[in-house]
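It would be a great kindness if you could assist me with a short task in structural biology. Thank you for your consideration; the sequence and its tokens are set out here.
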Amino acid sequence: TSFFTDDVIVQSAVFVLVSLIALAATRPLVKKYQTKEVIPTNSDRNIGKEAIVTAEINNDEGTGLVKVGGEVWSARSADNKVIALGQTVIVKAIEGVKLIVT
């Protein structure tokens, strides 16, 4: 655009427009080559197992601990119910470092 005009605003507008078009055109290609596979960890083995509640699980207060496989994990209730100390629960999922139980 510098061959056609000396106006910096026009040159900047053309730069921004061409950059956006280039990003839009190459995005599908980049997404195609990105890997999205989940790499399982050893903690995945706890899903489906029974656990014992060692501290009351209360999602509203952010409290709760369970013991599964000899390890103590922080836990949340899958259905937002309060689960009392000593109850047996089933591990449904893992979100970060917390087990989601029912």
Remarks:
- The first strand starts at residue 50 and ends at 58.
- Helices lie at 8-33.
